[in-house]
Design a protein that fits this description.
Layout lengths: L16 E6 L5 E6 L6 E6 L22 E7 L2 E4 L6 E4 L6 E5 L4 E6 L10 E4 L2 E6 L6 E6 L5 E6 L9 E3 L6 E3 L16
Antiparallel strand pairs: 1-2, 2-3, 3-4, 5-6, 6-7, 7-8, 9-10, 10-11, 11-12, 13-14
Length: about 190
């Protein structure tokens, strides 16, 4: 809860569970899990109210406070469209962002040039999505319009790390990114006996 209280486990299995994202209505969370030996997008519906004033019981990792959990489709990162009708996602070890419609179980690629290393470096905002574009010599923040289907560079960046390094404000006015300012190495001599 934003007002405070104890954290509550949402996903807790022996698998890796990564890349959480809120559903637009705030009543569910999407995340990626490799519980079945392949990466899938999971949707966990939250209960109407969670008691955060007391510590979770010892077995709470086996029984997280959620109403339902189900696998949506294959993927490693996902975010809902503004209207909640579509899910934008990246697939394991594949370049590109896909639009997936859960109601019809259909998917189509919308942006080709987003690399697997940037699975956490994109965001759906309004009528488009912002992403890190590494297709040219200098990485850039780029915008893909769902209406015009065009990619527009927003700002060219310095050297970026090969991990999640990007966030966009909800109104699309501000960007945060991590830039490599300095990389160092030391050579040491250890004398053997």
């Amino acid at each position: 809860e934003a007002a405070g209280g104890l954290p509550q486990p949402i996903a807790a299995t022996d698998a890796n569970e990564i890349a959480p994202a809120w559903a637009r209505n705030g009543r569910a969370i999407y995340y990626a899990s490799n519980a079945n030996d392949r990466w899938c997008i999971v949707k966990a519906a939250l209960p109407a109210r969670v008691d955060t004033t007391t510590a979770p019981p010892p077995d709470s990792l086996a029984h997280p406070p959620i109403d339902s959990v189900y696998v949506v489709t294959e993927g490693v990162a996902a975010m809902e469209s503004e209207d909640g009708a579509a899910l934008y996602l990246m697939k394991p070890n594949e370049a590109g962002i896909w639009r997936y419609y859960p109601d019809t179980d259909s998917a189509a690629i919308v942006v080709h040039d987003v690399l697997p290393v940037d699975s956490g470096n994109w965001s759906v905002v309004g009528n488009g999505l912002y992403f890190i574009d590494r297709s040219s010599r200098r990485p850039a923040i780029a915008y893909f319009s769902f209406t015009t289907r065009r990619i527009t560079p927003i700002a060219y960046l310095g050297p970026l790390p090969d991990d999640n390094a990007f966030a966009v404000s909800a109104d699309g006015r501000w960007f945060l990114y991590t830039q490599i300012e300095r990389s160092e190495s030391d050579i040491l001599l250890i004398e053997g006996r």
